[in-house]
Amino acid sequence: MKFLSLKGCSFKLIFIGKNIMINLNLKNKLIKFTESLNIFCYGFTECRRFIELKQYFNSKIDKLYLTEFEDKDVEKRINPFFYFEDGKTIISIAVPYFRKDNEYNKCFSKYTQGLDYHYVVNDYLNKICDFIRNFGYECKSFCDTNNLPERYIAYLCGVGHIGRNSLLYTKKYGSYVFLGEIITNANLCDSFSQEYYDNKFKEIGVFEHCGKCRNCMKKCPNDVLVEKNFNKCVSNLTQKKVLDSDEINNLNGMIFGCDICQDVCPKNRNVEYSFEERFNTEEFLKNIKDNDIVNMNNKFFKDNFKKLSCSWRGKNLLKRNVIIKNKEDINFIKSLNFDNNEHLNYYKNRFFNKKN
Ligand code: B12
Ligand code: SF4
Ligand code: SF4
Questions:
Q1: Is the pLDDT of residue 7 over 90?
Q2: Residue 200's closest CA among 77, 53, 55?
Q3: Which of 20, 45, 138, 330 can pair with 156 through a Cys bridge, CB separation 3.0 to 4.6 Å?
C-alpha cells in the first residue's frame, strides 16, 4: 500500500494485478457523490483500445451497413486515447428518460419529447468532472458527441446488458436510458487481459438476458434486427436528409425516432419512470397537429423545437417527415404551400402527381 500527496490531500492507493494503483479514496467518494445526484446506474472500466471490436466494425463497413452517423475511421471508434491521451479510466453513467407523459405524442419517440438529452446528460457529467478535478485529476466528458462505442463501454462498466435490439439495458430503468462517459487520468479500476475482453465481447452475442425472446426482431417494421443493418432503421430514416423511394415508404408514420423494439421488450415492463423532470414532454408537443408542423415558421421552430434533440437536422426535415406521413391524404397534400422551397415542393409534387 502507498500514500500519495496531491494538492495537500493524502490518498490511499492500492496495488492490484498489472501494477495498477487504484485511488480508492477518490473512488469511494466519487461513488457517494454520483449517487447523491440520483445516478445509480454507473460503473468504471480501464481506458484502453477496444481492439476486440475492430473486426466487428470492419465487417459492418464491408457489408455497407454503416449509417451516415457512424465514422468510417475505425480507430476513432475504438481508441479513447484519441480523445484523451493520458486517460486511465472511463466512467459510464446512464440517465433515465422515460416519463409518464411521454406517451402523449406517438409520432415523436419518447427520447426526444423533453429537453435535449445532450444538455441534461452533460449537466450530470460536468458535475462529476468538477468533483474529480477537485482531487487534482483531469477529465474529458462526452455524450453522443464522439465515435466511441457508448453501449459497449457501459456494458464493460457493468452498467447493464445488451439486448437483441442492440440497446443497453439497466435493471432499474430498462433500456430507456441515455449514456454518458468521462475519461479521466485517475486510476479507478482494475486491469484485465485481452483474452478477458475478447470473451466479454463474444458474450454479448449470446444474449443471455433475452433467453428465447425475439419480440424486438419480430416487431421491427423494417426487419432491421436480423442482419443488424441500421440503414433501414426508422430512427435512421427520420434523421436522414436524403431518402430514396423505398426509404420514403419505410418511415412507418414517424416524425422522429422509433421506439418499437424497446416498447415490445419484456425487460422494459415494470421499469421505473425517470426522476428527471426535464424529460417531461414539452407542453407545445402534447397537442401539436401535423398542420402546425408543416406550416411552422423560424420563430415557432426556434421557440419550441430548438430545445429538443429532434431539432438537430433542422425544421425542414420535420416538415418533410410530416408530408411523408400524410402522403395518402390528397387534401392535406393539396393544402401545402412552401413558396420557393425546392426540397419540400419536391415531396409535395411527388405525392400530388401520384394521386392525379
Ligand atoms: C449511430 C447511432 C444510431 C444509428 C444506428 C444505431 C445502431 N444500432 O447502430 C440510428 C440513427 C439508427 C440510431 C438509433 C437509435 N439510437 Co442511437 N446512436 C448512434 C451512435 C451515435 C453510434 C452507435 C454505433 O456506433 N453503432 C454501431 C454498432 C455496431 O455499435 P453499438 O450500437 O454500440 O453496438 C455495440 C453492442 O451493441 C454490440 N453488439 C450489438 N449486437 C451485437 C451482436 C453480436 C454478435 C456481438 C458480438 C456484439 C453486438 O457490439 C457493438 C460494439 O460497440 C450512439 C452514440 C455512440 N457514440 O455510441 C447512439 C446511441 C446508441 N443511440 C441511442 C438511442 C437512444 C437510440 C434510439 C433508441 C433512438 C430512438 N428512439 O429512435 C434508436 C435505437 C435503435 C436501436 N435499436 O439501436 C443511445 C442508446 C442508449 C441505450 N440505452 O442503448 C446512444 C448510446 C446515444 C446515447 N448517448 O445515449 N442510433
Ligand atoms: S428503432 Fe424501430 S426500426 Fe429501428 S430497430 Fe428498433 S424497431 Fe426497428
Ligand atoms: S424484446 Fe426480447 S429479444 Fe429483444 S431485447 Fe427484449 S428480451 Fe431481448
A1: no
A2: 53
A3: 45
